[in-house]
Amino acid sequence: MKTLFISGKTAGIEDLNEPKFEEFRQKFEGLGYKVITPHSIRKNWDSTLSENDLTKVEIAKILEEVDIIAVMDNWINSKESMLQVFVAQQLGIKIIEVETENELPYELEIKARVRKKENETPEVP
Fold first, then answer.
1. pTM above the 0.85 mark?
2. Alpha helices per DSSP H over 38-103
3. pLDDT at 114
4. Neighbours of 28 (CB within 10 A)
């Protein structure tokens, strides 16, 4: 059985976006995957861990167990998801979109994000 990690933005979203993650967890379990979400990791760890520490735990989980990362449409707005996608790309872990199950053209997405940052005008105080 392949293990799939669902990646997407949680910070700043009501209930840390758990209902949407749960919807996709059920979808992929129905397709025969073992599914890991940020929420399932959080439930098994000390609630006093910082966001950075939780991100480290998620990356360790990806390194140890994950065969596929499924990204939600808001992943590009999450530093944690960006890091997860980068790690997956470097290790040759397959990355798909949760809704379409198509492979993510991550190199294009990352380049677009970098270009956008480079072209932004700095704010003047």
1. no
2. 38-43, 51-65, 79-91
3. 55
4. 21
Give me the residue label for tokens 């492979």.
103
pLDDT in tens, 51-87: 888 889 899 999 999 999 999 988 988 989 999 998 9
C-alpha atoms less than 13 angstroms from C-alpha of 73 in its C-beta half-sphere: 3
Number of neighbouring beta carbons within 10 Å of residue 4: 26
- State which amino acid sits at residue 66: V
Which residues are paired to 71 by β-bridges?
A: 7, 97
Dihedral-angle region of residue 60 (phi above 0 means left; psi in -120 to 50 means alpha; beta otherwise) = alpha
The identity of residue 24, as a single letter, is F
Q: What is the DSSP letter of 78?
A: -
Ranges under pLDDT 50 in the chain: 122, 124-125
